[in-house]
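Recall that a protein's primary structure is simply its ordered list of amino acids. Everything else, from secondary elements to tertiary packing, is in principle encoded there. The following example makes that idea concrete.
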Amino acid sequence: MTQALALPRIIQGGMGVGVSDWRLARTVSMLGHLGVVSGTGIDTVLVRRLQDGDIGGHVRRAMAKFPLPRAAEDVLRLYFREGGRPPGTPYKSTPMYRQAVSTARQQLSMLAAFVEVTLAKEGHRGQVGMNLLTKIQLPNLAFLYGAMLAGVDYILMGAGVPREIPGALDLMAKHQTASLRLDLENPTAAPALYIKFDPMEHWDGPPPEIRRPMFLAIIASNSLATMLTRKATGKVDGFVIEGPTGGGHNAPARGELRYNERGEPVYGERDEVDLEKMRQLGVPFWTAGGAGSPDRVVEALEAGAAGVQVGTLFAYSDESGMTEPVKRSILAHALRDDVDVFTDLRASPTGYPFKVVRWGGDPAIGVKRQRVCDVGGLRVSYITPQGTVGYRCPAEPEKDYVRKGGKAEETEGRKCLCNALMANIGIGQLREDGWVEPPLITSGTDLTIISTFLAGRTRYSAKDVIDYLLSKCGPESSGVVPLSVPEVAAVRRG
């Protein structure tokens, strides 16, 4: 029986590594909106949860439902530690992704996405989405297929141009081979290289029936929306329009680069998306980035949007995956208007501007971060002098990066976001020398005015966020918008 689809008024943003985890997404979905789990680094999150003893048994409960039981058993054997790691023991790492990896490595990624979506969908009939970064190419096809095995309803992708993703979803829904053109930092005139994923390599018999999720592209310009509408390899079902005030990575400013007195990029009219032009495309859209207030919700609906995507308010809710001490500390400082959100042009190895939270209780103050690359999520691919594919990251040790042909100046100010964002959710790596990875919190600029929403509170729930956002909307705007029967059928056909 086909589940009726609906367009949500509120999309809970897919934040960081594990901040928008299954608990938060499940809560938002149960409240009638779109809960979104972050797929970024989800394989590392899975194995670290297992090494910490899988408190509550949630991961193992979802793993037991994975339709490739032998793969799940192998992962348990390799990574699960009853009672957690012995004190002072670093996490065991997963093999870093390459253009081509083993079947077992693909299945670990599939399993991780499956577990997160399965847990988010437990106990309700609401919709669940997964957010992935286009920039992190190598594991994405395996993540997508694993999420589809769990019945994910939406896929949201930005941080790049996800032109090939809709077509890949179409193919994988039929268990057919999908591919992505490998992005190379130094492309050559040689034939293009591809990342390929063949679902049938993983099945000894007939695979289970799965469906294509709806695909939402996260964009920052009208031109990108128009291009994706016309030239994507499959149907783009909607757009999330993310402005420069959103958390995490932002699009670079368009036109002549200008900076304020703090060294942050200055965004202007060219960086604003024309919502009327978005309406003319005839594709549903949601506004994001600074959308976390009742007034912004009303403005979005009046402009023809289906709703809004909100991240920052949900990031500090009781249900989010951010560690409790960090949440409590930031909110306490926010009540005193003692938080700052800085757009750092150098922090991210991707080269994109990246929002960083500064507050008096930051445990990373005065800490010199180690340069390391042992997760490898943000490595870029390049062609070596020998003609093979190599991998490098500006946040790795400078000598390693330069040895691989990178420029030393590209390493200045770069931080290993893979490890730092793991620390945000309490699974930061412990080094053999005893050094513990400190957190690096990212938020949208809404954090600087969150005291209005807090109204003196030091904690709140995801339901409080939704009630607040919809407080100026009429009853007709407080829930989801059903799709027509023909629309449902069209989506299911891809």
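Confidence is low (pLDDT under 50) at residues 480-494. The radius of gyration is 21 Å.
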